[in-house]
Amino acid sequence: MGRPTVTDIAREAGVSLATVDRVLNARPGVRDKTIAAVNEAVARLGYVRDMAAANLARGRILRVAILLPDTESQFLQTLQDALQQAATLASSARMQVELLRFPAKDMHSLAMMLADLAAGGISGVALMAPETPVVRDALRALHAAGVPVVAMVSDLPNSGATHFVGIDSHAAGRTAGVLMGRFLGGKTPRVMVIAQSMLLRDSIERRRGFDAVMQRDFPGIEVGQTLETHGATETLQQVMAVSLAASGPVGGIYLLGSGHRALAQVLSELGLLGRVVTIGHELTPHTIAALEAGWMDAVIAQNVGHIARSTLRVLQAKADQQPINESQERLRLEIILRENLPPSL
Amino acid sequence: MGRPTVTDIAREAGVSLATVDRVLNARPGVRDKTIAAVNEAVARLGYVRDMAAANLARGRILRVAILLPDTESQFLQTLQDALQQAATLASSARMQVELLRFPAKDMHSLAMMLADLAAGGISGVALMAPETPVVRDALRALHAAGVPVVAMVSDLPNSGATHFVGIDSHAAGRTAGVLMGRFLGGKTPRVMVIAQSMLLRDSIERRRGFDAVMQRDFPGIEVGQTLETHGATETLQQVMAVSLAASGPVGGIYLLGSGHRALAQVLSELGLLGRVVTIGHELTPHTIAALEAGWMDAVIAQNVGHIARSTLRVLQAKADQQPINESQERLRLEIILRENLPPSL
DNA sequence: GCCCAAATGATGTGCGTACCTCAAAAATGA
DNA sequence: TCATTTTTGAGGTACGCACATCATTTGGGC
Question: CA nearest A204: which of A257, A277, A148?
Fold first, then answer.
């Protein structure tokens, strides 16, 4: 015998198929006693609803929207590719994914897009966005309408996000700290920290984690203030020069966000490429190349493929009102060196 | 309009449903020209088979067997737990998993179990086993019978294994080498390598990878011969004492396989616990505790949950004659420090 | 142009579930 | 006890696909 079906439940509980159906789908008009009898039969036979058949019968196609900022970073591109691929696969499981991008600086646009989605009858939303009041209100409205919301990469704890798919940024920073401390060895015990901007929750938390470890485990290493570049190579060059002049040479560089290409250029001009321990975040074509070339020593990353698949799985589970397999959805914080780079990408 | 269905394909291609079915399921008796026409319609409409409905219609329950040695190691226990959990989940995807264990030293028993499975009409087999002639022949028989075979953790390249789920052991050894070299810093440049036995393919390849990196990148570090303990604490104590007396103190220890508990004991007795850089393999309760306690510095691991799910997915795909999503099945080689230990396990 | 095999069409059934309608039975209140 | 409401039963259709059978058409060799 294979798995029990509704028919088996009906026989076991001594009721009709219709009644089993009413109980399983919480339809009205069944006595409590009967409900209990059916549930007992379910428990006794170990019945699990065949979600595939259920969704087939419902004839429903899950419409799900994923929103990313339109920033042109390699990480976002990589993430979008992964989502695209996962979406294609998901289409064979009655799920239709709409990949949208919103103006990174215009949270009102994002809020409007979210409102439109709510009005258009979406059954799930995932997004990567900063937690501003406007966004928070829009998400709460979605939540109130019963639409599950998944925060990707950067958490949105105060916006009623149903689920967070991403790594613990503080732990990521701590990991970077340990590696920096140990890799520095006999080099100049001074570390420079560089970021494009400190507006993003992630960067702030990474920095905090990094500092915590450095203070606790490597008190002999001096860590400079965060140098903000705002994305411009010239700014990077300038702030680095000023910092080097003011505080002296450094043995390590910690890159909080993106900007690996610009850093390579400036380091090269300063004759420092490959001579300072360099640690950054996220696996992208640039960081992979940097690891292979040997001038980056380690990258702290999260698996974008995993993020994409996990996001879709969570949205599916929420729509089906099914429990989430926590252990499968828990993202690992990956340490990537040249030696354990994935075979090709 | 929702997604296109077989009916849409039939209309678009100007053929009947039966013919579409014949093409989609690669049944004989269709002209090449007609096949092309159907495939074109499929491409034009962007048809993707609804696997849920397809599997429902097939009404088949995949019977799959997984074989593990009955060795009592924590890694195997962890792996078995992960497989158990994945199997429970897979049962809701019409797959029935039989978890079997075979006597680790008796390959003839294993071969007999495999033969029984083949006779019993199994639709897929996964196993973790050494590649001996007896096993190879049994696996080839399975392969000849059209039963897909998945090698787990340790590859079986010459036995016609359909697929390998696991990490590159040579790369794992190289990674251990890099970490050892960099973590050693100013410590005594001498490393001790310990293994329970060098019979397993994995251990050999790890050792080779480790040596390759040490020779290339850290020529100043002396790496000793592999000390084999054969699982006994007394032996470990003895060989370590002999080695220390003969070659002098060491700054690092590389543990190729299991035996973390015994090592902790001996190190503690020697007053070395936490004073030598210690690197090992696989995430188990013991290694997690060791990382948390701080006497192990790094663990090179593969995600057992991923192995379990990947194994079942691959078996499913093979049974469905479907292509495998390489990027999803590619296992990452994980570096675990205290700072990036998974939140609880 | 005829024949026979190969190719295609037409049609039905079933997988496990959702959802609907109508009839029948049981419980409830007066 | 009867009327009324509530609960339950019986049965059908649909979802998208696999698979089977039988009838019909088509094409190529002669």
Answer: A257
